[in-house]
Amino acid sequence: MQNFLDTEIKFLKGVGEARAKLLASELEVATFRDLLYYFPFRHIDRSRFYRIEELAGNDMPAIQIKGHFLSFRMEGEGARKRLVGVFSDGRRMMETVWFSKVKQFSEMFKPGIEYVIFGKPSFFNNAWSIAHPEVEVFDAEKPPTGFRGVYSLTETMRKRGFGMRVLQTIIGNLFGNRLFSTIRETLPREIVERYGLMPLQEALRQMHFPDDVRSLQRATERMKFEELFYVEAHILRYSMERGSKLPGYLFPKIGEKFNGFYFNVLPFQLTGAQKRVLKEIRADMKTGRQMNRLLQGDVGSGKTMVAFMSMLMAVDNGFQAALMAPTEILATQHYASLSEWAAPIGVKVALLTGSTRTRERREIHEGLLSGDIHIIVGTHALIEDTVKFRSLGLAVIDEQHRFGVAQRARMWSKNSVVPHVLVMTATPIPRTLAMTVYGDLEVSVIDELPPGRKPVTTLLRFDSNRMEVDRLIVSQLREGRQVYIVYPLISENEKLDLKSLEEGYKRTCETFPSFRVCFVHGRMKPEEKDYQMDLFVRGEARIMVATTVIEVGVNVPNASVMVIENAERFGLSQLHQLRGRVGRGADQSYCILMGKVKSGADTKKRLSIMTETTDGFLISEADMKIRGPGDMEGTQQSGLAFNLRVADLARDGQILTRAREAALAVLRGNVSLLAPGCTPTAPRQGDLPPIALHAEEVAVMAGELSRRFAKTIDWSQIS
Ligand code: ADP
Ligand code: MG
Prior knowledge:
Blueprint: H1 16-27, H2 32-36, E1 42-50, E2 62-75, E3 82-88, E4 93-98, H3 102-108, E5 115-119, E6 121-124, E7 127-131, E8 134-137, E9 146-150, H4 155-159, H5 164-176, H6 189-194, H7 200-208, H8 213-239, H9 256-265, H10 272-285, E10 292-297, H11 303-316, E11 320-324, H12 328-342, E12 349-352, H13 358-370, E13 375-378, E14 392-398, H14 405-412, E15 420-425, H15 431-437, E16 442-446, E17 457-462, H16 466-478, E18 482-486, H17 494-511, E19 517-520, H18 526-537, E20 543-546, E21 559-564, H19 572-579, E22 590-595, H20 601-612, H21 616-626, H22 653-669, H23 695-709
Parallel strand pairs: 1-2, 4-7, 10-15, 10-16, 11-13, 11-14, 12-13, 14-15, 17-22, 18-20, 18-21, 19-20, 21-22
Antiparallel strand pairs: 1-9, 2-3, 2-5, 3-4, 5-8, 6-7
Helix pairs in contact: 7-8, 8-22, 9-11, 10-11
Bound molecules: adenosine-5'-diphosphate and magnesium ion.
């Protein structure tokens, strides 16, 4: 009888074949479960007027308040100029903020008139405020319109008469179904009780049809907890073995390879940050415990050199080292740098990717087994079972977020003793968050760029500035430089995206006829993609028109212009990554963000942060602050291998901490939930004691884990 949730959506009252097709193609809703978990992206409470003193908590819906404007003032300068209004409901005061049409608003509202302001309140700088509220004159005749969820819908759905009302009605039918009550709780009972969580059935109902703000907040918290609990359980299933007492290889000495390289080959001075991180790594390798370290460093901060010199520490102590990159292009580039550095000191480096020919592959396998090859660079081809090492001492994984937890586990299951692991990422994640999400990883940070870099000049431009942008591109091309033109990833609206990409390519070829243009997107065959990328890397193509496939790691120092089309569709951290592709040489480079003239004030404000700073940590912080919890597009931003639908890592740190603590206790109490080969770590001081579950609850959890994360363990998903 459990199959209520897995029932195909066409069987739901009010749906049928035609609407089921639309739900599947437009919203990826195929089953009752999918629809139940298709939550409103925001809620509107027009059922009554709120008092300012009632505002509380994180996830306030949009609400209405009745009162008077007391005063207005201007704050900020230039692009950050804003109008702040002080609004009183007769007892308390709050602020309203406008970022655009500032003058117009300041003259529009009159003192002494009773207004209704409507919007989502947020608590900021110790005060409640609403940004860009809807404002109308209070009308005693106007009836309240209730408390309801607003769902995202597509244009196609609306055109076919599948609007908000219809969606609300069919969702209502789910709750009316007599089998609704058979839905089973997904969280262990003891967890629900310990944390005072709202039970699942009730939470689902409140998410869609809240009784009041407090119930909605509790429901949201429960759904966030559930989501994060399973994310943590998934991570911990694989990483449990990685307690602090795991034995690791000892690399006691700094030897001739390291010193030979450092004193005779190293082509530049290490930055202070690189030296510090190398010392941290060196200290780890002397403890006899296995190193498990996350190395964060902005794009261009020189992580590869740190990786290479750490690898030399392994080689000096008679061990091998591996560097795994997420794409073939990246692996090839790493191989080129590493072999150049390694040759003068007699260290042998090899490259192994999906396209390595059979014969060469066999030679590499032999070389790794005999120990002739000291350092291997490759893609996920490295984790195949046929790849065996004589003595793998250090595994370096570049651009972490492309590999799932399970892949990492495979990398280090190659030895009886787990090798030291160094994970490198340019996606800045606040330290505490990284610790929680990545388990027992220690974190090192390179917070300093090599000297002599000219900061990239970043400009925000619009369609009306095309000519100016084209002129800049031509002048850079004439000076021998190369240019990237990037379009948003082909995804949500595939046809439209592909069309704008192809048009952009055509336009580029026509506008710059004397320069070769290459063309890359994620839906291409890998060989074709590599061929096109290679044209650019070798300098044969001078312009690359691409989607974000180039985001990770391409190093073409001769490229000096990065044009980002539809920049408003990218997250700030992603824009920052893209910008990092230029400014790698000594010359002045440019990043041009092409925005929509019509985009809103928030978007312009967001993009203007990019023109103001090049500090990746500041940018990611700003990104996290700006994105609201209900903002669906924000969820993919964190660079993790899984999608979060309700929770937001930037804002839900406290829930995350509790969810992790709970997951840890549950896994310790139910070893059958761990991945094969993993054993539970003993509780540390402050941990919850292990929680043993009923067999039934274990089965539910196992089911949830495999359902939720089936995709992330599929190796072929990795691009
Ligand atoms: P990322 O951290 O983004 O992976 P890379 O390792 O690719 O950065 O380094 C970017 C560029 O900076 C490379 O060309 C590298 O050789 C160079 N580089 C690294 N460290 C230094 C340094 N200390 N001084 C000067 N150039 C450096
Ligand atoms: Mg790199």
